[in-house]
Amino acid sequence: MTNIDTVVVGGGIAGASIAYELAASRSVLLVEGETALARHSTARSAATYVPGHGAAPLRALVAASGPRFARLEAELDAPPLFSPRPVLHVALDADGEAQLAAELAEQAAEPGAPVPIDPAEAQRRCPVLRPGTVRAAAVVEGAADLDAEALHQAYVRGLRGRGGAVRTGAPVIGLERRGGGWRVRAGAEVVDAAEVVDAAGAWADVVAGLAGVPRIGLTPYRRTIALVRVPDPARLRGPDGAGLPMVVEPLERFYFKQEGDGLLVSPADETPVEPSDARPDELDVATALERVEAATGLGLRSVRTAWAGLRSFVPDRLPVVGAWPEHPGFWFCAGQGGSGIETSPALAAFAAAVVTGGPLPPDVPLEREAFAPGRPGAGIAAKPRP
């Protein structure tokens, strides 16, 4: 029998980052059902940092995370986590143009927001776009690729450095209230903990069900990505021989970015699925090629590899951080959707403050209840175990 302050369930970026933050002031055990950490969403993300991405609360987390990434590199002895790469939003039809205009209007006063550019400038920045297809465009200069693996490893290294422990191959098979705390059965180990943090990604509601805690109504969605061969790699050159920006369609009907001499493409699909080891669907891969080919004319035909990951949301598509009032000591840190990596530094610090009751980080301009399970307007009702 092990006694500990906090058990964090889930070894992806959410679990590793909040476990690291909590370990600054308490004993922490991170448990993961897989034999290796970060095998699902974290390992399969396109891993980009995009200021202006998402609804206003998410944009606040993204903005606060930017400077925190730089501090983490020094704090955790991590390699450079950012590789600058602008993101180009390109509207190719009236619907996309209207969506882009709405986003620009909403974010006009925010630092790091997309900046409108004319179609000719978009074409200059990304010469692979078919001439005459861009109706409206905007650029995010402060965007970057993120090294998700290095970030995750740094968090785990930091957790251990603070005295925290990690168990892999230890699926949670039992959670029961014991006095003021919890008895957690993880694989062959039994742990008594004062508190549990449910950071199990797509499986967060499954873990809540084991504890007899109401679910938050999480829906996992499959997202497909493929790496495709470009017949003429010489075309993958931006201005002055630089690499291409990442290109995103405003309604997220596709995105693509250069990966060496190939192109990473996605139809930005969202197919509801059960929590699982997601696999790419051939039709989604074909759709990605079709949409990106229509925008570029690169002659895309050959897929080198394809994969799929899960993006999990509650109805209002904001993260869930907090506990149901009737179930104190069982904390959710889930529902990050497609922003889990780019928001992880700020969200982990915010979540740790919620769990410990400590002061909120001053660089995260959100109220303590901003992501609570019962927040007004979230579309989240307490959903008991079926």
Automatic annotation (TrEMBL):
SUPFAM superfamilies associated with the record: FAD/NAD(P)-binding domain
Record domain FAD dependent oxidoreductase: where: 5-352
This protein's UniProt keywords: Oxidoreductase
Name of this protein: FAD-dependent oxidoreductase
Species assigned in the record: Pseudonocardia adelaidensis
